[in-house]
């Protein structure tokens, strides 16, 4: 395919072809250059194929284009390291499963944009989500298939509640990084414009269903170990695993913050952790009210369903950095984001590293949007001076 570029400087070009399964597209990734102007010449086949290009955030080192050849669209892969050197000042943080509580969403009634999100959700989910959020029953709201969509929608409704208050839009405009705890990563991606509210809800709905099915197929459990550092918790897991079969093994599934780590795995393995915790000088253990062994290989059956759904979903480059739970890094390339989201259900959540990195990089103000105050508690535990505000809906 003859495509020529003319620039006022030498512009190195990397061309790579994606597999046919990813829209049979070719992609151009242009590394950092010093660029004043950029123009294009083309063969007749490409004469009208360039739909547009832009310099991201005025940065001449990144060029993004969408090309069409005949009836096919050529998708451009963004440099995945685009946000690697982000410098956060204001963050939106979104909660994960477990934050749900009967009564959440009641403020949405008074904000039309927030209320509208629940109406859109009803069409996708097939039930009255707001009624369930406000009135329960708790047992139904706590189920994986309900709680994940409920938290996703309620958290984005909290954004609209904030937008409606004096100075709210200015706060939203000031946010330059976002992330979410497990499920909350989907909420963060929706806020950052990586996918639409509707597409994100469809993914979250399927994610909850797939995780519930995986949990039903292999019984597992999760327990929080309080009062130990991560090395000690790992030693506790190793000791527990010596007493159970391979199918019941456990691992650290959620690195929340110093002194609070969630262990996930087979029921017998979790019971062994609980029995041995005191001997390792843990302050306490708390069995978590979840359907199964999340963020471990127990969730492997959910991966293929997620991969298929993600492949069929349009994901765009986020407009601000979204920090991944898998590696505590921001990703800009939509294809990479899809892979990360598929891996997330079987990978340990690196929340402690995420928070440490944000604080180390100079984060000044944070907002926790959605039900509960778990994230605020973690931030305060890691830095008593951390400034964080809760916005509920």
TrEMBL record:
Residues 93-392 form the Malonyl-CoA:ACP transacylase (MAT) domain. It comes from the Eukaryota. InterPro entries: Ac_transferase_dom_sf, Acyl_transferase_dom, Acyl_Trfase/lysoPLipase, Malonyl_CoA-ACP_transAc_FabD, Malonyl_transacylase_ACP-bd, Mitochondrial_malonyltrans. Signal peptide: none annotated. Pfam families: Acyl_transf_1. GO terms for molecular function: [acyl-carrier-protein] S-malonyltransferase activity. PANTHER family: MALONYL-COA ACP TRANSACYLASE, ACP-BINDING, MALONYL-COA:ACP TRANSACYLASE (MAT) DOMAIN-CONTAINING PROTEIN. This is Malonyl-CoA:ACP transacylase (MAT) domain-containing protein.
């Amino acid at each position: 395919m003859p495509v020529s570029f003319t620039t006022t400087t030498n512009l190195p070009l990397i061309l790579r072809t994606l597999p046919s399964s990813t829209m049979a597209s070719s992609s151009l990734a242009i590394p950092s250059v010093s660029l004043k102007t950029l123009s294009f010449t083309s063969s007749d086949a490409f004469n009208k194929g360039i739909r547009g290009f832009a310099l991201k955030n005025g940065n001449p080192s990144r060029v993004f284009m969408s090309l069409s050849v005949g009836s096919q669209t050529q998708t451009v892969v963004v440099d995945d390291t685009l946000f690697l050197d982000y410098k956060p000042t204001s963050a939106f943080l979104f909660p994960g499963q477990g934050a749900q509580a009967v009564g959440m969403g009641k403020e949405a009634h008074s904000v039309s944009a927030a209320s509208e999100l629940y109406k859109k959700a009803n069409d996708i989910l097939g039930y009255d989500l707001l009624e369930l959020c406000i009135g329960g029953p708790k047992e139904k709201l706590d189920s994986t298939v309900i709680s994940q969509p409920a938290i996703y929608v309620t958290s984005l409704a909290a954004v609209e509640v904030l937008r409606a208050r004096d100075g709210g839009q200015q706060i939203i405009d000031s946010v330059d990084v976002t992330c979410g705890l497990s499920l909350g990563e989907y909420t963060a991606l929706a806020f950052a414009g990586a996918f639409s509210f509707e597409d994100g809800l469809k993914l979250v709905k399927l994610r909850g269903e797939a995780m519930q099915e995986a949990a039903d197929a292999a019984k597992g459990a999760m327990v929080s170990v309080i009062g130990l550092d991560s090395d000690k918790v790992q030693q506790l897991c190793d000791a527990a695993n010596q007493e159970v079969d391979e199918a019941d093994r456990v691992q650290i599934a959620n690195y929340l913050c110093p002194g609070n780590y969630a262990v996930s795995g087979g029921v017998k393995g979790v019971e062994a952790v609980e029995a041995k915790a005191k001997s390792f000088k843990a302050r306490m253990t708390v069995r978590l009210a979840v359907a199964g062994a999340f963020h471990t290989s127990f969730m492997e059956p959910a991966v293929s369903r997620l991969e298929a759904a993600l492949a069929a979903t349009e994901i765009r480059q986020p407009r601000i950095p979204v920090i991944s739970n898998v590696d505590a890094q921001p990703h800009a390339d939509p294809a990479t984001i899809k892979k990360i989201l598929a891996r997330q259900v079987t990978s340990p959540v690196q929340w402690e590293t995420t928070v440490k990195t944000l604080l180390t990089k100079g984060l000044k103000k944070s907002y926790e949007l959605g039900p509960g105050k778990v994230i605020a508690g973690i931030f305060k535990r890691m830095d008593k001076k951390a400034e964080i505000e809760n916005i509920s809906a």
